[in-house]
Amino acid sequence: MKATTVLRQDHAQVRRLFAQLGRTKPTNIARRQALVDELVTAIEIHAKTEEELFYPVIAPLAPRAVQDGEDEHGEIGTLIADVERCAADSPALDRALAHLRTRIEHHVAEEERALFAAAARLGHEHLTWLGGEMTARKSQLLQSPMQKALRGMKKLARKVA
User: How many domains does the chain have?
Assistant: First the structure.
């Protein structure tokens, strides 16, 4: 699978999670929190994979677009922290999610326009190889004991707070 296809699938997954959150009532606290956790994990793994594998390959072809993407990842990270500070039944969560969604939609549009056009110049074979590397890295990050521990610590911190 091409790297751009992997990224498009990630983008679609994030859109689905936002939509599911939008349909989940604030009174369904456990479901909302599970969806927030899944959303945050999906975004963080996507960003890490992009930064480690996709951006370095694309940077020589579109240095400004890659820099913009990295800057946007920083902004998105701040918005994720805002989301994570909110209780699942809080109106503040809806506001934080709306800000995050707007920022991500902008980021995705820019990425799919500028970076995917540059990536196309790499050719099918190179993009397919890179897609395989990205898929493997995403799987590794999902299964990593360190990453699992970090996600568990975030959940514990919310319970204590």
Answer: 1
